[in-house]
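Recap quiz, item 2
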Amino acid sequence: MQRAQGFLFILPAIIVLALLVLYPIAYTGLLSVTDETGNYVGLANYTAVVGARMTATAVRNTVYYVAVSIVFQVVLGTAAGILLNQRFRGRALVRAVALLPWVVPGIVAATTWAWMFHTEFGIINYALTSTGIVSSPVGWLTDRDIVMPALIAINVWKLFPFVAVMVLAALQAVPNELYESARIDGANFWHEVRHVMLPQIRPVLVAITLLLIIWGLNAITIIYTITRGGPANRTLITPIQIFRYAFESFDFNGAAALSVMFFLVALVFVAIYIKLFATERDGRLT
Amino acid sequence: MKRSWAGGIAIFASAALLVFVAIFPFLWMALSSVKTLRELYTVPPIWFPEALTFDNYAKVLFNSNIPRYFLNSTIISVGSTAVALAVAIFASYGFARFNFRGKASAQAFILVGQLLPTAAIIVPLFIILRWFGLVNSYLGLILVYTIITLPLSVWMLTSYFRAIPFELEEAAIIDGCSRLGVLFRITLPLSLPGLVAVIVYAFVTTWNEFIFALVFAQDFRVKTLPIGIAEFSTEFNTDWGAVMAASMVMTVPVALVFFGMQRLFVGGLTAGAVKG
Protein backbone atom coordinates (compact mmCIF):
# COMPACT_ATOMS: atom_id res chain seq x y z
CA MET A 1 0.00 0.00 0.00
CA GLN A 2 2.70 2.41 1.09
CA ARG A 3 4.76 1.47 -1.94
CA ALA A 4 1.95 1.80 -4.41
CA GLN A 5 1.12 5.20 -2.98
CA GLY A 6 4.67 6.46 -3.53
CA PHE A 7 4.54 5.34 -7.12
CA LEU A 8 1.21 7.12 -7.65
CA PHE A 9 2.78 10.38 -6.54
CA ILE A 10 5.52 10.25 -9.16
CA LEU A 11 3.33 8.81 -11.88
CA PRO A 12 2.24 12.13 -13.48
CA ALA A 13 5.86 13.26 -13.86
CA ILE A 14 6.85 9.94 -15.37
CA ILE A 15 3.94 10.05 -17.81
CA VAL A 16 4.71 13.61 -18.94
CA LEU A 17 8.38 12.83 -19.48
CA ALA A 18 7.67 9.49 -21.15
CA LEU A 19 5.28 11.12 -23.61
CA LEU A 20 7.39 14.16 -24.37
CA VAL A 21 10.92 12.80 -24.03
CA LEU A 22 11.02 9.01 -24.26
CA TYR A 23 8.52 8.68 -27.07
CA PRO A 24 10.16 11.36 -29.24
CA ILE A 25 13.52 9.64 -28.78
CA ALA A 26 12.11 6.32 -29.92
CA TYR A 27 10.38 8.08 -32.80
CA THR A 28 13.67 9.69 -33.86
CA GLY A 29 15.20 6.24 -34.04
CA LEU A 30 12.38 5.11 -36.29
CA LEU A 31 12.57 8.17 -38.54
CA SER A 32 16.31 7.73 -38.95
CA VAL A 33 15.95 4.34 -40.66
CA THR A 34 13.00 5.14 -42.91
CA ASP A 35 12.38 7.43 -45.86
CA GLU A 36 9.76 10.18 -46.04
CA THR A 37 7.02 7.71 -46.95
CA GLY A 38 7.89 5.44 -44.03
CA ASN A 39 9.69 2.64 -45.90
CA TYR A 40 12.59 0.99 -44.14
CA VAL A 41 15.86 2.07 -45.76
CA GLY A 42 18.46 0.68 -43.38
CA LEU A 43 21.36 3.01 -42.73
CA ALA A 44 20.94 5.04 -45.92
CA ASN A 45 20.12 8.23 -44.02
CA TYR A 46 23.16 7.77 -41.82
CA THR A 47 25.55 7.27 -44.72
CA ALA A 48 24.07 10.31 -46.48
CA VAL A 49 24.49 12.49 -43.39
CA VAL A 50 27.98 11.23 -42.55
CA GLY A 51 29.02 11.73 -46.17
CA ALA A 52 27.85 15.34 -46.29
CA ARG A 53 30.77 17.75 -46.15
CA MET A 54 28.79 20.01 -43.88
CA THR A 55 28.73 17.34 -41.15
CA ALA A 56 32.49 17.22 -40.64
CA THR A 57 32.62 21.02 -40.59
CA ALA A 58 29.86 21.15 -38.01
CA VAL A 59 31.50 18.56 -35.77
CA ARG A 60 34.80 20.44 -35.90
CA ASN A 61 33.09 23.73 -35.11
CA THR A 62 31.06 22.22 -32.28
CA VAL A 63 34.12 20.73 -30.60
CA TYR A 64 36.01 24.01 -31.00
CA TYR A 65 33.13 26.11 -29.68
CA VAL A 66 32.35 23.90 -26.70
CA ALA A 67 35.93 23.11 -25.68
CA VAL A 68 37.34 26.63 -25.84
CA SER A 69 34.22 28.10 -24.18
CA ILE A 70 34.49 25.67 -21.28
CA VAL A 71 38.15 26.34 -20.60
CA PHE A 72 37.46 30.07 -20.22
CA GLN A 73 34.17 29.59 -18.39
CA VAL A 74 35.74 27.35 -15.77
CA VAL A 75 38.91 29.40 -15.29
CA LEU A 76 37.19 32.79 -15.14
CA GLY A 77 34.22 31.43 -13.19
CA THR A 78 36.49 29.85 -10.57
CA ALA A 79 38.47 33.07 -10.22
CA ALA A 80 35.22 35.02 -9.82
CA GLY A 81 33.91 32.49 -7.29
CA ILE A 82 37.07 32.79 -5.20
CA LEU A 83 36.83 36.57 -5.37
CA LEU A 84 33.18 36.55 -4.27
CA ASN A 85 34.10 34.36 -1.32
CA GLN A 86 36.50 37.02 0.06
CA ARG A 87 35.26 39.50 2.61
CA PHE A 88 34.91 43.01 1.29
CA ARG A 89 32.51 45.89 1.52
CA GLY A 90 29.63 45.67 -0.94
CA ARG A 91 30.10 41.96 -1.46
CA ALA A 92 26.39 41.13 -1.50
CA LEU A 93 25.78 43.66 -4.26
CA VAL A 94 28.74 42.46 -6.33
CA ARG A 95 27.51 38.88 -5.98
CA ALA A 96 24.08 39.84 -7.30
CA VAL A 97 25.38 41.96 -10.18
CA ALA A 98 27.90 39.32 -11.25
CA LEU A 99 25.02 36.91 -11.85
CA LEU A 100 23.29 39.24 -14.28
CA PRO A 101 24.76 37.82 -17.53
CA TRP A 102 23.54 34.37 -16.59
CA VAL A 103 20.01 35.51 -15.80
CA VAL A 104 19.27 37.57 -18.88
CA PRO A 105 17.72 35.88 -21.88
CA GLY A 106 20.25 34.42 -24.31
CA ILE A 107 18.62 36.37 -27.13
CA VAL A 108 19.25 39.65 -25.31
CA ALA A 109 22.88 38.74 -24.72
CA ALA A 110 23.15 37.95 -28.42
CA THR A 111 21.58 41.20 -29.68
CA THR A 112 23.42 43.42 -27.21
CA TRP A 113 26.81 41.93 -28.00
CA ALA A 114 26.07 41.95 -31.72
CA TRP A 115 25.53 45.70 -31.41
CA MET A 116 28.70 46.16 -29.37
CA PHE A 117 30.64 44.07 -31.92
CA HIS A 118 29.20 46.07 -34.83
CA THR A 119 32.04 46.70 -37.28
CA GLU A 120 31.32 50.36 -38.02
CA PHE A 121 29.42 51.70 -35.05
CA GLY A 122 30.24 49.20 -32.32
CA ILE A 123 31.68 50.41 -29.04
CA ILE A 124 34.30 47.65 -28.98
CA ASN A 125 35.90 48.61 -32.29
CA TYR A 126 35.82 52.23 -31.18
CA ALA A 127 37.57 51.41 -27.91
CA LEU A 128 40.22 49.38 -29.73
CA THR A 129 40.90 51.83 -32.57
CA SER A 130 40.86 55.00 -30.47
CA THR A 131 43.41 53.55 -28.06
CA GLY A 132 45.55 52.34 -30.95
CA ILE A 133 45.30 48.64 -30.05
CA VAL A 134 44.14 47.87 -33.58
CA SER A 135 44.69 50.16 -36.56
CA SER A 136 41.49 49.48 -38.48
CA PRO A 137 38.04 48.23 -37.36
CA VAL A 138 37.76 44.46 -36.90
CA GLY A 139 34.91 42.58 -38.59
CA TRP A 140 34.07 40.67 -35.43
CA LEU A 141 30.94 39.00 -36.79
CA THR A 142 31.80 39.01 -40.48
CA ASP A 143 35.47 38.01 -40.67
CA ARG A 144 35.68 34.23 -41.14
CA ASP A 145 38.62 33.78 -38.82
CA ILE A 146 37.41 36.03 -36.04
CA VAL A 147 33.71 35.28 -35.79
CA MET A 148 34.09 32.06 -33.79
CA PRO A 149 36.33 33.57 -31.08
CA ALA A 150 33.87 36.50 -30.86
CA LEU A 151 30.94 34.13 -30.35
CA ILE A 152 32.94 32.15 -27.80
CA ALA A 153 33.58 35.38 -25.90
CA ILE A 154 29.84 36.04 -25.72
CA ASN A 155 29.20 32.48 -24.61
CA VAL A 156 31.86 32.72 -21.90
CA TRP A 157 30.40 36.01 -20.68
CA LYS A 158 26.96 34.43 -20.49
CA LEU A 159 27.91 31.34 -18.48
CA PHE A 160 30.94 32.12 -16.31
CA PRO A 161 28.61 33.52 -13.59
CA PHE A 162 26.99 30.09 -13.28
CA VAL A 163 30.42 28.57 -12.59
CA ALA A 164 31.10 31.37 -10.10
CA VAL A 165 27.91 30.67 -8.08
CA MET A 166 28.60 26.96 -7.94
CA VAL A 167 32.24 27.51 -6.95
CA LEU A 168 31.14 30.04 -4.34
CA ALA A 169 28.65 27.58 -2.85
CA ALA A 170 31.33 24.89 -2.73
CA LEU A 171 33.86 27.25 -1.13
CA GLN A 172 31.38 28.19 1.58
CA ALA A 173 31.22 24.53 2.56
CA VAL A 174 35.01 24.29 3.04
CA PRO A 175 35.63 23.92 6.79
CA ASN A 176 37.45 26.84 8.37
CA GLU A 177 39.95 24.56 10.11
CA LEU A 178 41.58 23.81 6.76
CA TYR A 179 42.41 27.49 6.24
CA GLU A 180 43.56 27.84 9.82
CA SER A 181 45.94 24.93 9.70
CA ALA A 182 47.25 26.16 6.33
CA ARG A 183 47.93 29.54 7.89
CA ILE A 184 49.74 28.00 10.83
CA ASP A 185 51.99 26.42 8.24
CA GLY A 186 52.64 29.90 6.87
CA ALA A 187 50.51 29.66 3.73
CA ASN A 188 49.84 32.85 1.76
CA PHE A 189 46.78 33.49 -0.39
CA TRP A 190 48.10 31.60 -3.44
CA HIS A 191 49.06 28.62 -1.32
CA GLU A 192 45.53 28.58 0.06
CA VAL A 193 44.07 28.68 -3.44
CA ARG A 194 46.27 25.84 -4.62
CA HIS A 195 46.38 23.57 -1.63
CA VAL A 196 43.07 24.24 0.14
CA MET A 197 40.45 25.72 -2.19
CA LEU A 198 41.11 23.93 -5.48
CA PRO A 199 41.42 20.43 -3.98
CA GLN A 200 38.25 21.00 -1.97
CA ILE A 201 36.16 22.19 -4.90
CA ARG A 202 37.55 19.71 -7.40
CA PRO A 203 34.46 17.44 -7.40
CA VAL A 204 32.27 20.47 -8.05
CA LEU A 205 34.55 21.61 -10.88
CA VAL A 206 34.32 18.20 -12.51
CA ALA A 207 30.52 18.26 -12.18
CA ILE A 208 30.34 21.78 -13.63
CA THR A 209 32.60 20.88 -16.53
CA LEU A 210 30.41 17.94 -17.46
CA LEU A 211 27.27 20.07 -17.16
CA LEU A 212 28.87 22.74 -19.36
CA ILE A 213 29.72 20.12 -21.99
CA ILE A 214 26.15 18.83 -21.94
CA TRP A 215 24.67 22.33 -22.12
CA GLY A 216 27.27 23.49 -24.61
CA LEU A 217 26.31 20.74 -27.03
CA ASN A 218 22.79 22.06 -26.78
CA ALA A 219 23.48 25.79 -26.94
CA ILE A 220 22.26 27.29 -30.15
CA THR A 221 20.64 30.61 -29.27
CA ILE A 222 23.68 32.88 -29.47
CA ILE A 223 25.07 31.44 -32.69
CA TYR A 224 21.72 31.03 -34.36
CA THR A 225 20.59 34.60 -33.76
CA ILE A 226 23.89 36.26 -34.64
CA THR A 227 25.27 34.30 -37.58
CA ARG A 228 22.91 31.38 -38.30
CA GLY A 229 26.03 29.29 -38.89
CA GLY A 230 27.67 31.68 -41.34
CA PRO A 231 29.83 33.22 -42.71
CA ALA A 232 30.79 30.33 -45.01
CA ASN A 233 29.68 27.78 -42.37
CA ARG A 234 32.46 28.92 -40.07
CA THR A 235 30.07 28.92 -37.09
CA LEU A 236 27.90 26.01 -38.17
CA ILE A 237 27.48 23.72 -35.16
CA THR A 238 25.72 20.36 -35.15
CA PRO A 239 22.43 21.52 -33.52
CA ILE A 240 22.12 24.19 -36.22
CA GLN A 241 22.82 21.57 -38.86
CA ILE A 242 19.98 19.41 -37.46
CA PHE A 243 17.81 22.47 -37.62
CA ARG A 244 18.75 23.14 -41.22
CA TYR A 245 18.07 19.55 -42.28
CA ALA A 246 14.65 19.59 -40.66
CA PHE A 247 13.28 23.06 -41.20
CA GLU A 248 15.15 24.40 -44.22
CA SER A 249 15.56 21.25 -46.34
CA PHE A 250 12.54 19.54 -44.72
CA ASP A 251 14.56 16.34 -44.65
CA PHE A 252 13.18 15.01 -41.37
CA ASN A 253 14.82 11.61 -41.88
CA GLY A 254 18.28 13.06 -42.39
CA ALA A 255 17.71 15.30 -39.38
CA ALA A 256 16.68 12.25 -37.35
CA ALA A 257 19.81 10.31 -38.34
CA LEU A 258 21.99 13.25 -37.32
CA SER A 259 19.96 13.64 -34.11
CA VAL A 260 20.53 10.01 -33.15
CA MET A 261 24.29 10.34 -33.57
CA PHE A 262 24.34 13.65 -31.74
CA PHE A 263 22.18 12.17 -29.01
CA LEU A 264 24.51 9.21 -28.49
CA VAL A 265 27.51 11.50 -28.10
CA ALA A 266 25.64 13.64 -25.56
CA LEU A 267 24.48 10.49 -23.78
CA VAL A 268 28.09 9.47 -23.13
CA PHE A 269 28.64 12.66 -21.13
CA VAL A 270 25.27 12.36 -19.40
CA ALA A 271 26.13 8.79 -18.38
CA ILE A 272 29.52 9.84 -16.98
CA TYR A 273 27.85 12.66 -15.08
CA ILE A 274 25.18 10.44 -13.56
CA LYS A 275 27.67 7.71 -12.73
CA LEU A 276 29.96 10.14 -10.96
CA PHE A 277 27.54 12.48 -9.27
CA ALA A 278 23.97 11.33 -8.95
CA THR A 279 23.75 9.35 -5.76
CA GLU A 280 20.64 7.24 -5.68
CA ARG A 281 20.24 7.57 -1.96
CA ASP A 282 19.47 11.24 -1.59
CA GLY A 283 18.86 12.21 -5.18
CA ARG A 284 21.21 15.14 -5.32
CA LEU A 285 23.91 16.06 -7.75
CA THR A 286 27.44 15.77 -6.38
CA MET B 1 41.43 37.48 8.67
CA LYS B 2 43.74 40.45 8.40
CA ARG B 3 44.65 41.44 4.92
CA SER B 4 47.54 43.39 3.57
CA TRP B 5 47.01 46.78 2.00
CA ALA B 6 47.99 45.44 -1.44
CA GLY B 7 45.58 42.52 -1.06
CA GLY B 8 42.73 44.94 -0.36
CA ILE B 9 43.51 46.93 -3.50
CA ALA B 10 43.71 43.76 -5.59
CA ILE B 11 40.31 42.61 -4.33
CA PHE B 12 38.76 46.01 -4.93
CA ALA B 13 40.21 46.17 -8.46
CA SER B 14 39.06 42.66 -9.36
CA ALA B 15 35.58 43.28 -7.95
CA ALA B 16 35.33 46.52 -9.95
CA LEU B 17 36.42 44.71 -13.11
CA LEU B 18 33.90 41.92 -12.49
CA VAL B 19 31.06 44.39 -12.01
CA PHE B 20 32.10 46.31 -15.12
CA VAL B 21 32.21 43.20 -17.31
CA ALA B 22 28.88 41.94 -15.98
CA ILE B 23 26.98 45.19 -16.24
CA PHE B 24 28.46 47.15 -19.14
CA PRO B 25 26.45 45.45 -21.91
CA PHE B 26 23.25 46.32 -20.06
CA LEU B 27 24.25 49.94 -19.58
CA TRP B 28 25.13 50.15 -23.26
CA MET B 29 21.81 48.55 -24.17
CA ALA B 30 19.92 51.01 -21.95
CA LEU B 31 21.83 54.01 -23.35
CA SER B 32 21.40 52.85 -26.95
CA SER B 33 17.67 52.40 -26.45
CA VAL B 34 17.18 56.13 -25.76
CA LYS B 35 19.31 57.47 -28.62
CA THR B 36 18.12 58.70 -31.98
CA LEU B 37 19.22 56.86 -35.09
CA ARG B 38 21.68 59.62 -35.91
CA GLU B 39 23.25 59.31 -32.49
CA LEU B 40 23.49 55.53 -32.85
CA TYR B 41 25.15 55.57 -36.25
CA THR B 42 28.02 57.90 -35.62
CA VAL B 43 31.77 57.62 -35.13
CA PRO B 44 33.07 58.22 -32.52
CA PRO B 45 30.12 56.84 -30.54
CA ILE B 46 28.22 59.22 -28.30
CA TRP B 47 28.11 58.08 -24.69
CA PHE B 48 25.10 60.01 -23.48
CA PRO B 49 22.37 61.18 -25.84
CA GLU B 50 21.82 64.93 -25.93
CA ALA B 51 18.14 64.53 -25.19
CA LEU B 52 16.49 61.28 -24.21
CA THR B 53 14.29 60.01 -26.98
CA PHE B 54 11.59 57.46 -26.43
CA ASP B 55 10.90 56.99 -30.13
CA ASN B 56 12.46 53.52 -30.04
CA TYR B 57 10.14 52.48 -27.24
CA ALA B 58 7.17 54.02 -29.00
CA LYS B 59 8.05 52.04 -32.11
CA VAL B 60 8.36 48.83 -30.11
CA LEU B 61 5.23 49.36 -28.03
CA PHE B 62 2.83 50.84 -30.57
CA ASN B 63 4.19 49.90 -33.95
CA SER B 64 5.26 46.28 -33.71
CA ASN B 65 4.10 42.85 -32.58
CA ILE B 66 6.12 43.10 -29.37
CA PRO B 67 3.13 43.83 -27.04
CA ARG B 68 1.34 40.77 -28.38
CA TYR B 69 4.50 38.68 -27.95
CA PHE B 70 4.83 40.01 -24.41
CA LEU B 71 1.32 38.77 -23.69
CA ASN B 72 2.07 35.40 -25.31
CA SER B 73 5.28 35.05 -23.31
CA THR B 74 3.41 35.80 -20.11
CA ILE B 75 0.60 33.32 -20.77
CA ILE B 76 2.98 30.56 -21.83
CA SER B 77 5.43 31.13 -18.96
CA VAL B 78 2.69 31.25 -16.33
CA GLY B 79 0.92 28.22 -17.78
CA SER B 80 4.04 26.14 -18.09
CA THR B 81 5.25 27.09 -14.61
CA ALA B 82 1.88 26.07 -13.15
CA VAL B 83 1.90 22.69 -14.90
CA ALA B 84 5.52 21.97 -13.98
CA LEU B 85 4.93 22.99 -10.37
CA ALA B 86 1.79 20.87 -9.97
CA VAL B 87 3.46 17.77 -11.40
CA ALA B 88 6.72 18.41 -9.55
CA ILE B 89 5.03 18.78 -6.14
CA PHE B 90 3.59 15.28 -6.29
CA ALA B 91 6.68 13.70 -7.77
CA SER B 92 9.00 15.34 -5.24
CA TYR B 93 6.80 14.30 -2.37
CA GLY B 94 6.82 10.73 -3.67
CA PHE B 95 10.61 10.74 -3.92
CA ALA B 96 11.15 12.42 -0.56
CA ARG B 97 8.77 10.34 1.56
CA PHE B 98 8.30 6.92 0.00
CA ASN B 99 10.41 3.94 -0.85
CA PHE B 100 9.29 1.84 -3.75
CA ARG B 101 10.79 -0.42 -6.31
CA GLY B 102 12.27 1.43 -9.26
CA LYS B 103 12.63 4.69 -7.35
CA ALA B 104 16.32 5.03 -8.18
CA SER B 105 15.70 4.38 -11.88
CA ALA B 106 12.80 6.84 -11.87
CA GLN B 107 15.07 9.52 -10.39
CA ALA B 108 17.80 8.77 -12.91
CA PHE B 109 15.22 8.93 -15.70
CA ILE B 110 14.10 12.37 -14.59
CA LEU B 111 17.69 13.57 -14.39
CA VAL B 112 18.39 12.31 -17.90
CA GLY B 113 15.36 14.28 -19.05
CA GLN B 114 17.05 17.41 -17.73
CA LEU B 115 20.34 16.73 -19.47
CA LEU B 116 19.34 15.53 -22.91
CA PRO B 117 20.03 17.88 -25.80
CA THR B 118 16.76 19.47 -26.90
CA ALA B 119 18.13 19.72 -30.43
CA ALA B 120 18.05 15.93 -30.65
CA ILE B 121 14.32 15.63 -29.91
CA ILE B 122 13.08 18.73 -31.62
CA VAL B 123 12.23 16.98 -34.91
CA PRO B 124 10.07 14.17 -33.46
CA LEU B 125 8.46 16.60 -31.00
CA PHE B 126 7.52 18.80 -33.92
CA ILE B 127 5.98 15.87 -35.78
CA ILE B 128 4.10 14.72 -32.69
CA LEU B 129 2.75 18.18 -31.92
CA ARG B 130 1.73 18.62 -35.54
CA TRP B 131 -0.10 15.30 -35.33
CA PHE B 132 -2.10 16.58 -32.36
CA GLY B 133 -2.60 19.98 -33.98
CA LEU B 134 -0.62 21.64 -31.19
CA VAL B 135 1.98 23.49 -33.28
CA ASN B 136 1.21 27.20 -33.00
CA SER B 137 -0.88 26.79 -29.88
CA TYR B 138 -0.43 27.93 -26.29
CA LEU B 139 -1.05 24.41 -25.03
CA GLY B 140 1.67 22.92 -27.24
CA LEU B 141 4.26 25.43 -26.03
CA ILE B 142 3.21 25.05 -22.40
CA LEU B 143 3.69 21.28 -22.69
CA VAL B 144 7.10 21.38 -24.36
CA TYR B 145 8.36 23.92 -21.82
CA THR B 146 7.21 21.65 -19.02
CA ILE B 147 9.74 19.03 -20.07
CA ILE B 148 12.51 21.63 -19.88
CA THR B 149 11.67 22.84 -16.37
CA LEU B 150 10.13 19.76 -14.75
CA PRO B 151 13.29 17.74 -14.00
CA LEU B 152 15.21 20.42 -12.12
CA SER B 153 11.99 21.49 -10.34
CA VAL B 154 11.58 17.93 -9.07
CA TRP B 155 15.18 17.84 -7.86
CA MET B 156 14.97 21.18 -6.08
CA LEU B 157 11.66 20.39 -4.38
CA THR B 158 12.75 16.89 -3.36
CA SER B 159 15.66 18.31 -1.40
CA TYR B 160 13.35 20.88 0.23
CA PHE B 161 10.80 18.27 1.24
CA ARG B 162 13.53 16.05 2.68
CA ALA B 163 14.69 18.87 4.90
CA ILE B 164 11.30 19.01 6.64
CA PRO B 165 11.24 16.79 9.76
CA PHE B 166 9.15 13.72 9.15
CA GLU B 167 7.92 13.83 12.78
CA LEU B 168 5.68 16.78 11.88
CA GLU B 169 3.93 14.67 9.25
CA GLU B 170 3.70 11.64 11.50
CA ALA B 171 1.89 13.63 14.14
CA ALA B 172 -0.70 14.71 11.58
CA ILE B 173 -1.10 11.16 10.25
CA ILE B 174 -1.73 9.87 13.77
CA ASP B 175 -4.39 12.55 14.10
CA GLY B 176 -6.10 10.99 11.11
CA CYS B 177 -4.87 13.21 8.30
CA SER B 178 -4.51 11.61 4.86
CA ARG B 179 -1.28 11.67 2.87
CA LEU B 180 -2.61 14.35 0.58
CA GLY B 181 -3.87 16.30 3.57
CA VAL B 182 -0.39 16.13 5.08
CA LEU B 183 1.18 17.29 1.83
CA PHE B 184 -1.11 20.29 1.44
CA ARG B 185 -1.55 21.30 5.09
CA ILE B 186 1.92 20.65 6.48
CA THR B 187 4.64 20.02 3.93
CA LEU B 188 3.78 22.66 1.33
CA PRO B 189 3.31 25.60 3.73
CA LEU B 190 6.65 24.71 5.35
CA SER B 191 8.48 24.62 2.02
CA LEU B 192 7.31 27.98 0.75
CA PRO B 193 10.86 29.20 0.00
CA GLY B 194 11.46 26.09 -2.08
CA LEU B 195 8.22 26.63 -3.98
CA VAL B 196 9.13 30.23 -4.72
CA ALA B 197 12.58 29.15 -5.93
CA VAL B 198 11.03 26.61 -8.28
CA ILE B 199 8.48 29.12 -9.57
CA VAL B 200 11.18 31.70 -10.31
CA TYR B 201 13.39 29.11 -11.96
CA ALA B 202 10.62 27.71 -14.16
CA PHE B 203 9.26 31.13 -15.09
CA VAL B 204 12.60 32.66 -16.01
CA THR B 205 13.71 29.58 -17.97
CA THR B 206 10.50 29.55 -20.00
CA TRP B 207 10.54 33.31 -20.51
CA ASN B 208 14.09 33.16 -21.90
CA GLU B 209 13.78 30.05 -24.07
CA PHE B 210 14.46 30.46 -27.77
CA ILE B 211 14.83 27.21 -29.73
CA PHE B 212 11.51 25.57 -28.93
CA ALA B 213 9.78 28.88 -29.52
CA LEU B 214 11.46 29.17 -32.90
CA VAL B 215 10.18 25.77 -33.99
CA PHE B 216 6.80 25.47 -32.29
CA ALA B 217 5.56 29.05 -32.60
CA GLN B 218 5.49 30.21 -36.18
CA ASP B 219 2.41 32.38 -35.96
CA PHE B 220 2.32 35.85 -34.42
CA ARG B 221 -0.61 34.82 -32.19
CA VAL B 222 1.67 32.52 -30.16
CA LYS B 223 5.19 33.81 -30.86
CA THR B 224 7.14 34.77 -27.76
CA LEU B 225 9.40 37.73 -27.02
CA PRO B 226 12.75 36.11 -27.93
CA ILE B 227 11.37 35.42 -31.41
CA GLY B 228 10.15 39.00 -31.64
CA ILE B 229 13.61 40.34 -30.89
CA ALA B 230 15.19 37.96 -33.38
CA GLU B 231 12.75 39.22 -36.03
CA PHE B 232 13.83 42.79 -35.39
CA SER B 233 17.49 42.02 -35.78
CA THR B 234 17.48 39.67 -38.74
CA GLU B 235 15.85 42.02 -41.16
CA PHE B 236 18.22 43.31 -43.81
CA ASN B 237 18.51 46.70 -42.18
CA THR B 238 18.64 46.18 -38.45
CA ASP B 239 17.02 48.99 -36.47
CA TRP B 240 19.41 48.83 -33.55
CA GLY B 241 17.56 51.44 -31.51
CA ALA B 242 14.37 49.38 -31.66
CA VAL B 243 16.25 46.14 -30.99
CA MET B 244 17.80 47.65 -27.87
CA ALA B 245 14.44 48.99 -26.69
CA ALA B 246 12.78 45.61 -27.24
CA SER B 247 15.64 43.93 -25.40
CA MET B 248 15.07 46.28 -22.47
CA VAL B 249 11.36 45.44 -22.44
CA MET B 250 12.23 41.77 -22.26
CA THR B 251 15.06 42.03 -19.73
CA VAL B 252 13.55 44.33 -17.12
CA PRO B 253 10.85 41.90 -15.85
CA VAL B 254 13.38 39.07 -15.55
CA ALA B 255 15.90 41.29 -13.80
CA LEU B 256 13.24 42.53 -11.34
CA VAL B 257 12.05 39.01 -10.53
CA PHE B 258 15.62 37.88 -10.14
CA PHE B 259 16.78 40.68 -7.87
CA GLY B 260 13.62 40.43 -5.80
CA MET B 261 14.13 36.72 -5.22
CA GLN B 262 17.87 36.44 -5.67
CA ARG B 263 18.67 34.96 -2.28
CA LEU B 264 15.95 32.34 -2.51
CA PHE B 265 16.69 31.44 -6.09
CA VAL B 266 20.42 30.99 -5.75
CA GLY B 267 19.97 29.23 -2.41
CA GLY B 268 17.45 26.83 -3.90
CA LEU B 269 19.48 26.11 -6.99
CA THR B 270 22.73 25.43 -5.19
CA ALA B 271 20.92 23.38 -2.54
CA GLY B 272 19.47 21.22 -5.29
CA ALA B 273 22.62 21.01 -7.30
CA VAL B 274 25.79 21.16 -5.30
CA LYS B 275 25.49 20.23 -1.65
CA GLY B 276 27.00 16.89 -0.79
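Chain A touches chain B through 100 residues (CB under 8 Å).
The domain at 53-106+147-277 of chain A is CATH 1.10.3720.10 (MetI-like fold).
End of item.
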